[in-house]
Amino acid sequence: MRDPRDIECWLTDKDGVLVQGEIPIPGASDLINCWVDTSRRFLVLTNDSSYTARDLSARLDQAGLIVPEENLWTSALATADFLAGQHPGARVYVVGEAGLTTALHDAGFVMVEEDPDYVVIGETRTYSFEAITLAINHIIGGARFIATNPDVIGPSATGVLPATGSVAALITAATNRHPYIVGKPNPMMFRSAMNRIEAHSETTAMIGDRMDTDIVAGIEAGLFTVLVLSGITGRKDLERFPYRPSLVVESVAELRAMM
Asked: Any catalytic annotation for residue 15?
């Protein structure tokens, strides 16, 4: 039976595990510093495709967490990595922010308005009717449909916002085409992350706060899974799920003490 001391490489969710909004969760900084100080390979994963790794690193720094940009893996980066293995240099029509367009550009894709091979939908705060209409027509015309993540809502200062999954559902309703979704809970995102840091599933762990995304995808990828109770899933929720994490802790502070 594996335990935290057996783990060589770590994957961790960001929201609910390391931060709550802009506030670091107690123990998060100590855990990251431990990984850095002991040269552990690790990546912080997020389904949010709107920010580049550099932007996210700067935002975490403002929250008091020092995470180098090379230790961040977003659904945008995972999507670019997936498409690079499918159709290098493809023509893509993108609905999304700089995090997605930069990832695709850096991976060698050409962003176009006409005759794309793929329509790629990601997070954005400025969805336009015109952009969505164009995406719908491209998909009806034969373009393949990709979404960075399935999240239907995201947080904002005034409440929730429609996220990638909501817009993808709208496009699906109009086209009768379902997207291939790269981000969590698709284990593809974890496999691409492990490839990035040359990790092996037998000695890699996933830390998450949601049973229905982080933990189930970690299990399906063959990882040691750690559920922290500092985010979405509470202890009383565990009985609802037909699968179990390898370890349940109150927060990353408790996990850090086990290492």
From this structure: yes
